[in-house]
Amino acid sequence: MGDLEYSNILLFSGGIDSTALAFSMRPDLALTVDYGQVCADAEILASEQICSTLGVEHEAVEVDCSDFGTGSLSPNEQVEEGPTPEWWPFRNQFLITVAAMKGVQIGADNIVVGTVEGDSDHADGQADFFRSMDEVVYGQEGSLHVRVPAICSTTVELVEQSGVPERILLWSHSCHVSNHPCGECRGCQKHYEVIEQSF
């Protein structure tokens, strides 16, 4: 990598899974993408606070794709193909592509994604998808790898393995429908259940 000092870029939503990874990995850069999701402001705020606390470099980028989103994360109706309320077509593929662009720019080796076992209800949350993305990204200039270190773990297992303290995890934002926790969406429910089971 020459004089460049970056190795791992963590795609950082400011949610529980990526927060646990940020704590355990201390990536060289945590990248939050505002792609037009309705909760982007809260994700960025949570990410900034967590990274500042951990001493991890953070960058937020805006690439507005709100016109192409569906479901609860977007301002648009959910389409019939959506397997869950928060499904957004090709989201992980897009986010990995944005992170890979940044990775080539700064000389990174790996794009790290905080997908866990419970995300497999989306096609882009399954191991086969990430194997394919790793092959596609590595086969292009920059030779980056796509890593999903927690894909065989539940969120509770990831939190326990990471050792992330509750005081840091409580900064995370998981709501899918608002910049303030709604308490009812799948993201909020997961957040409450994981905190309750882990501490």
Key phrases:
single chain, 199 residues, alpha/beta, Rossmann fold, five-stranded parallel β-sheet, 7 helices
Structure in words:
The protein has 199 residues and is of the alpha/beta class. The chain has one domain (8-198): HUPs (Rossmann fold), CATH 3.40.50. The protein has seven helices and five strands; from the N terminus they run βαβαβαβαβααα. It has helices spanning 16-25, 40-54, 91-106, 127-138, 155-162, 166-169, 186-198; strands at residues 8-11, 29-34, 58-62, 110-112, 145-147. Strands 3-2-1-4-5 form a five-stranded parallel beta sheet, with helices on both faces. Helix 1 (16-25) runs parallel beside helix 5 (155-162) and helix 5 packs across helix 7.
Give the biggest sheet: 5 strands, parallel
Rg over alpha carbons: 16 Å
| Oligomer state of the chains in this structure | single chain
CATH topology: Rossmann fold
Order of helices and strands: EHEHEHEHEHHH
- Runs in which pLDDT lies below 50 for 5 or more consecutive residues are none
Structural class: alpha/beta
What's the topology here?
Blueprint: E1 8-11, H1 16-25, E2 29-34, H2 40-54, E3 58-62, H3 91-106, E4 110-112, H4 127-138, E5 145-147, H5 155-162, H6 166-169, H7 186-198
Parallel strand pairs: 1-2, 1-4, 2-3, 4-5
